[in-house]
Design goal:
Helices cover about 35% and strands about 20% of the residues. The strands form two sheets. The chain has an eleven-stranded mixed β-sheet. Strands 1-2 form a two-stranded antiparallel sheet. The model has no long low-confidence stretch (mean pLDDT about 95).
């Protein structure tokens, strides 16, 4: 629903753009989908909160969302036509926004019919580690998140490694987001050695690290391996692939396509050699759901990690105070949300 509202807000913001221009056509290409950036889930948590899973059970469409997404996408494109036509006919900004609110009622109906009505209050019952029973009644999702989820997600920082652009600068992607009143998507660009250092410190302290990468490159699925030397193109075809990370980003050969969690790191002589990864594709993918990526693969195909401010030097955190450099809507740093 928030993505639908975000899309319609972008439609309103681009009324004077050529409908056949690159910006509008990009926005129309994929109004809503199941992808997203880390700051987008933070925005949802801060606005709505969370509930225990059994308070809002799965439905068919939570695991099979393609038809629901397709229906909402078609309806939103129709709404884009209607809003632009109303604008051309002289409708005021207030009138257009009132129409937008009416349009969102259709999207809400599709979501509720497909996924169920989200609970406004829940009762949480559980036994603690000492087998003592606890029950908390009439908790709102936002109260549950604020009072019982012991993570302040607003302290989490998205760090990227984008060698096309200057390090120690703050970046965002134009038109990328979901909750209109949130701060949007923010990145701090750092060099790859710093990224590895910060990630390894957190892992060695016993905590996992969320990361975004190009998961399809040099992957041997049956072995659960991500390794730049896993495929020998030279022997088979008498050439090797030699583009740099920056060149692959700039010429469309790589982008963030998947997010996973780093859960282990193997260190030799003070440097990482390989990393243990927990994936979300079930026990049959990789080795019982886990992968191993080499440090060389990390250098070439890991683009983002998320860490708490307390895990970062002050000079890195201070970058968040900068004005963000805007990357274009189609930039590969936004690809994870597609």
């Amino acid at each position: 629903l928030e993505k639908a509202n975000w899309f319609l807000e972008n439609v309103l913001a681009t009324m004077d753009e050529d409908v056949d221009g690159r910006v509008v056509q990009y926005l129309l290409k994929d109004p809503v989908n199941d992808g997203g950036q880390f700051d987008m889930i933070v925005a949802l948590l801060e606005k709505y909160g969370v509930v225990p899973k059994d308070a809002y059970p799965e439905t068919f469409h939570t695991s099979n969302s393609s038809e629901m997404d397709a229906l909402i996408t078609s309806r939103l494109r129709e709404f884009a036509v209607q809003l632009r036509q109303a604008h051309d006919e002289g409708a005021s900004a207030e009138e257009l926004r009132e129409r937008k609110r009416e349009m969102l009622a259709d999207v809400h109906r599709v979501l509720v019919v497909s996924l169920g009505q989200p609970p406004e209050q829940v009762t949480w019952s559980f036994y603690d580690k000492d087998k003592k029973f606890h029950e908390h009644r009439d908790i709102s999702p936002l109260e549950f998140y604020k009072n019982y989820v012991k993570v302040d997600c607003t302290r989490l920082v998205s760090l990227i490694n984008d060698p096309r652009n200057a390090y120690m600068r703050k970046y965002t992607v134009q038109y990328l987001g979901n909750v209109a009143e949130s701060q949007g998507v923010r990145y701090v660009n750092i060099d790859i050695d710093a990224m590895k250092l910060y990630a390894s410190r957190v892992i060695r302290s016993g905590r996992p690290v969320w990361f975004g990468c190009d998961v399809g490159k040099f992957r041997i699925s049956s072995k659960g391996l991500l390794d730049t030397s896993a495929v020998d193109y030279k022997s088979a075809f008498n050439f090797t692939l030699g583009s740099t990370k920056a060149q692959r980003l700039q010429f469309g050969d790589s982008a963030m396509t998947h997010a996973m969690v780093l859960t282990g790191v193997h260190i030799e002589d003070g440097k990482p050699v390989r990393w243990r990864v927990e994936n979300s594709w079930g026990d049959t993918a990789g080795i019982k759901g886990y992968l191993t990526l080499t440090d060389a693969w990390f250098s070439e195909y890991v683009y983002q990690i998320v860490l708490d401010k307390s895990d970062l030097p002050e000079r890195v955190v201070d970058v968040l105070d900068q004005d963000a450099v805007e990357l274009p809507p189609w930039d590969p740093m936004g690809a994870l949300a597609q």
